[in-house]
Amino acid sequence: MSDQVNRFLGDSPGRTLVKLVIVSLVVGFVMKFFGWRPLDFLYGVRRFLTDLWHSGFAALGEFGDYVLLGASIVIPVFIILRLFNHRS
What we know:
Elements: H1 2-9, H2 13-34, H3 38-87
Domain DUF6460: 52-86
InterPro entries: DUF6460 (IPR045594)
Organism: Rhizobium hainanense
């Protein structure tokens, strides 16, 4: 059982705990220095996904505009060509 725990953690539980405390301390200092809070990251991710969602649909809207604009020429030409080929 202890071998499985060590394999899961990548080291012994004590060493892993010490590493996590040291990394947490460094990250905490950096976050405090820049004035970051954990919720800022969550709000940033949420804002990123929302902006991506809205800009994605805007891009799809522009894509649809291009398709309709091209179709206004391509479809009539296609029909005319099919009519001429059908008579031959």
